[in-house]
Fold this protein.
Amino acid sequence: MTLSYSNETNGAWRTYLEQIDRVAPYLSHLSNYIDTLKRPKRALIVDVPIVMDDGTIQHFEGYRVQHNLSRGPGKGGIRFHPDVELNEVMALSAWMTIKTAVVNLPFGGAKGGVRVDPRKLSTRELERLTRRYTSEISSIIGPQKDIPAPDVGTNANIMAWMMDTYSTTEGHTITGVVTGKPVNLGGSLGRVKATGRGVYITGRHVAQKIGLDIPGARVAVQGFGNVGSEAALLFVEANAKVTHVQDHSGSIANAEGIDVVALIDYLKTHDGVAGFTGATAIDNEQFWEADIDILIPAALEGQITVERAEKLKARLVLEGANGPTYPDADDMLNKRGITIVPDVICNAGGVTVSYFEWVQDMASYFWSEEEINERLDKLLTKAMDDVWQSAAQHDCTLRTAAYILACERILIARSERGIFPG
Ligand code: NAD
């Protein structure tokens, strides 16, 4: 198998490689090991054939990439989306390596996915797809090896099927093989909302540092799924106004503030935000020119292009999504004095509570939601503060500072372990 290490691609993997190149000059002697971060440790491509409800057989392509395991088992979500491809999964797995290290969790980075539009499958077809995919990757996952979780297009039910399939193969129940499970099956309280909560916690911290008041702040959210909707709710609870929302169905605006609770309710019976009567429909490009203070990209990667960065009016960008900003757009935002809280810390709330879930599963002892939220707040605030201090020390952006912290931790682990066989 030939992987695209050639750096010729323009996708998410290329964005990641550029981010690593930017941090290398800060790593002194550790930069000897930097190539270890420029390739995945292991990448598995699997064929996932399933019998459809109409009796036909369809084949889907699936992946599980373990980017780096120097600091512990792999950790990272499973994406079901029609655009999933190897380069994207490689980048997402690499961002998990950086993310777990920034927050100092004892994990490496991994990611998986299947190229499929889950909305086009029946529930039975989705279950068959999930179980067959799990079976195909079961040789490389496990509670001590690599622990999947939900991502775009997957959820707690899918994690339950993954856990059941893996446990059935192993002959006993192994709850710790995945996180983001239903609470009945060893899932953690607070996990579903954790990523959005983390966006709020890190955003609140940095807003205070740059003198931006949350009460009254105008917030735009792209992607109103798990991450975007929860972050929006918490900002509204803190008296900010969500004035713009965009998802796959279109963009809506209301200068007085969108009723986020009503919008969440609306989405229970509608496929997207389009048609919501509590706001006006706007053109998708207008979303990027809106008069706002805070932008939360919480959809997919590669959304903030240099053209959009030139027009953006926000003072603060909170990267709920993974890799939403292209490197040249990153430069443009920095040049324009717009502060970015990078994905690797901004959306780390999910993996942090996944870590709590894994610990609880290992101990078979479960914590209250209050305890989980408190621990999440403490851990993320500390990590955000470390990143802020590192940025001040190196006179660099928060993204570079986060990468410096993470890469140091990963590469120190690598150098202390040495290169087998020595
Ligand atoms: P989700 O499937 O719940 O929601 C995705 C949202 O993005 C939906 O509102 C969808 O309509 C919107 N969207 C899809 N394509 C779009 C497009 N072309 N333009 C505008 N909007 C579009 O997914 P999620 O779990 O909320 O994840 C969102 C992002 O956050 C992803 O980048 C994911 O990798 C990242 N993330 C998720 C978690 C988690 O715990 N769920 C953790 C860390 C990072």
Notes: Residues 150-153, 195, 222-228, 246-248, 272, 298-300, 320-322, 347, 350 surround nicotinamide-adenine-dinucleotide (CB under 6 Å).
